[in-house]
Amino acid sequence: MKSVSKKITTALAIAMLCGFGLVNLAAAAAQTFTGEVSDSMCGAKHAMAGEKAACTRACVKKGSSYALVVGDKLYTLKTDDKKALAELDKLAGENAKVTGTAEGDTITVSKVAAAK
């Protein structure tokens, strides 16, 4: 009985280690996306008349998240990095290069720079 229990325990331990390895392999590598800095509420079509930047900043102040419009796709940008947030604010309504990991429609941001 102890032998069977030990084999099961060993098998479970090996399965868990393999699972952790697969999770690390499945974790997305950082990518760079280029698009227009907007907000998750407005996306590519801003609700406020006037400048895109002003609309984006106003929506973010009201609780919307920064977003990146890449072609027809809208990615919500997620970051707590104050430097990245300041750069997103500065580049609101303009094209930017955003580096981070994408999961579905969300990019966890590690770096933001003006697109050249």
Keywords:
116 residues, alpha+beta, OB fold (Dihydrolipoamide Acetyltransferase, E2P), five-stranded mixed barrel, 3 helices, elongated
CATH architecture: Beta Barrel
Number of DSSP strands? 5
The top-level CATH class is Mainly Beta
Please indicate the percent range of residues in DSSP E strands (runs of 2 or more). Answer: 25-35%
What best-fitting shape do the alpha-carbon axes yield?
elongated
- How is the CATH topology named? OB fold (Dihydrolipoamide Acetyltransferase, E2P)
Radius of gyration: 21 Å
Q: What count of helical segments does DSSP give?
A: 3
> What is the helix/strand order?
HEHEEHEE
Distance between the termini: 68 Å
Question: Which secondary structure elements does this structure contain, and how are they paired or packed?
Answer:
Blueprint: H1 2-26, E1 31-39, H2 52-61, E2 66-70, E3 73-78, H3 82-90, E4 95-103, E5 106-114
Parallel strand pairs: 3-5
Antiparallel strand pairs: 1-2, 1-4, 2-3, 4-5
